[in-house]
Amino acid sequence: MAQKPSIPKGTRDFSPAEMLRRNYIFDTIKGVFQMYGYMPIETPAMENLETLLGKYGEEGDKLLFKVLNSGDYLSKADKDLLGRGDSNRVALQISEKGLRYDLTVPFARFVVQHQNELSFPFKRYQVQPVWRADRPQKGRYREFYQCDVDVIGSDSLLNEVELLQIVDEVYRRLNIKVLIKLNNRKVLAGIAEIIGETDRLVDITVAIDKLDKIGLEKVRQELAERGLSREAIEKLEPILAVKGSNNEKLASLREILKDSETGLRGVEEIETVLKLVGALKLETSVELDLTLARGLNYYTGAIFEVKALDVEIGSITGGGRYDDLTGIFGMPGMSGVGISFGADRIFDVMNQLELYPEEVSVATQVLFVNFGDKEAAHCLKLAAELRSKGIKTEVYPDNAKMKKQMAYADKKQIGYVALLGENEIAKGLITLKDMHSGEQSSITLDEVVERIKA
């Protein structure tokens, strides 16, 4: 008995109808990116492991999918390590490549490798899949698409403001109501400094980044496990609980961080971004959130997350400023900032809220029924003319029973069926049937075009 086919957990197949919807999302996002002057690039699905390791923190490294070396991959492995079952160290001996975890680190590698071919500041967008060996759950997949937009080679906070404009425009076009959350890693560094845990910034950010997911008690427990003193945790909690408007939170932060130069610099950056964004009158609200940490190690300045307001799901967009990501590849001092739209979560949100325009689900507008060889040959010519006028058209390939051809049109949600027998061909007419109303009329090709476009 043949084994029933399946796919790995955390991955998905997409039907033609689903791909029409996904392509609508991709095309909408790309259209906004292009409107702001960003150019497309692509990078390989695989990167050298040395490119990926150490860029995402300890937890991120654990989620990297590693690719076994070709041939007898065990031949170069240390036999003692194999005998002891030291899987982490053995993995590095039998695997030199890994699937990309995100698009930002490959982008930094790309910039360094192609720096002499690029004009800076370099504005790029990238829409490709990434892979993470995470535990699959609602809204979290092992293979998913990211739609990234970054500008590198500029320190200006105008770039952060432009990215917030892009977020606002994308979600306005997709008709998703969202909230933008904003923070700054310099503020978090300042908080670590004033609670006496400067060297534990990464531990603090990794833990508080989970606050929405696991709650305060478990975050408190994780901070203790990571070595923070009880006194430091007690100082941290009221800071993260600061409430009020953006201006009230900024005022509180200025007082809390008055002895931290780094922290105050972060406050000034937030204030500048909020002031510039406020003058633009975006439709999307921007909220200062001190619990926003973004667990990735490479962020150094502004950090963003976007939440859908009408659906319970994790963040659907996130990103931030990184001051020296290219430095790890031998090109120091190249600051950049970017955001990533999670296409799969956006897809789930739009499906749940049924936000797609009606025309997105339509692959074909007109189907010519096949009455035989002579009629089909004539239909081919007319179909070509309709396509030249921008109308998506099919000719049914077989001289099958009418019921079967109409069922095909119905299943594909084709709006109109064109019937051409000997009489229609002789008179230069097409009998056009509206599949929604059931009405049909004999009209000219030009009238067919007018009716469908109307």
Task: Show the helix and strand layout.
Elements: H1 16-35, E1 39-40, E2 46-48, H2 49-52, H3 57-62, E3 66-67, H4 79-84, H5 87-94, E4 97-99, H6 104-113, E5 122-131, E6 143-152, H7 158-174, E7 178-184, H8 185-194, H9 201-208, H10 211-214, H11 216-225, H12 230-240, H13 246-256, H14 261-280, E8 285-288, E9 302-308, E10 317-322, E11 336-342, H15 343-353, E12 366-368, H16 373-388, E13 393-395, H17 402-411, E14 416-419, H18 422-427, E15 430-434, E16 440-443, H19 445-453
Parallel strand pairs: 1-5, 7-8, 12-13, 12-14
Antiparallel strand pairs: 2-4, 3-4, 5-6, 6-11, 7-9, 9-10, 10-11, 14-15, 15-16
Account of the 3D structure:
With 454 residues, the chain is an alpha+beta fold. The chain has helices at 16-35, 49-52, 57-62, 79-84, 87-94, 104-113, 158-174, 185-194, 201-208, 211-214, 216-225, 230-240, 246-256, 261-280, 343-353, 373-388, 402-411, 422-427, 445-453; strands spanning 39-40, 46-48, 66-67, 97-99, 122-131, 143-152, 178-184, 285-288, 302-308, 317-322, 336-342, 366-368, 393-395, 416-419, 430-434, 440-443. The protein has 2 domains: 16-42 and 100-353, BirA Bifunctional Protein, domain 2, CATH 3.30.930.10; 363-453, 3-Layer(aba) Sandwich (Rossmann fold), CATH 3.40.50.800. The chain has an 8-stranded mixed beta sheet with strand order 1-5-6-11-10-9-7-8. Strands 13-12-14-15-16 form a 5-stranded mixed beta sheet. A 3-stranded antiparallel beta sheet has the order 2-4-3. Helix 1 crosses helix 15. It is globular and about 90 Å long.
